[in-house]
Design goal:
The protein is an all-alpha fold and about 80 residues long. The chain has one domain. The chain has helices at about 10-20, 25-35, 35-45, 50-60. The longest helix has 12 residues, at about 10-20.
């Protein structure tokens, strides 16, 4: 089942925004929209131009703030002012 097909345009835009934010982990996207990290990557691949996707992947790959398990244990928040 493709969860991203059921999303509204506003939800899709918010997921893209959250995925580009440095301090928003993939866990926050999963919590809010039900997309795992792998599903978020596939979503970004399908919604972005190839060059933009490659730039995004290069940016987030290995970034500690995007992966909850790699984050500093003292950072417990992932709530953006734009989140519901």
């Amino acid at each position: 089942m493709d969860k991203s097909k059921k999303l509204s345009m506003a939800d899709k835009n918010r997921i893209i925004e959250m995925a580009w934010e440095d301090r928003t982990p993939f866990d926050a996207i999963e919590f809010q929209f039900g997309l795992t990290e792998e599903e978020t990557i596939e979503f970004m691949r399908s919604e972005m131009k190839s060059s933009s996707f490659k730039m995004w992947r290069k940016r987030v790959s290995g970034r500690k703030t995007k992966h909850h398990k790699k984050r500093n244990y003292e950072i417990k928040r992932f709530v953006s002012p734009n989140q519901y």
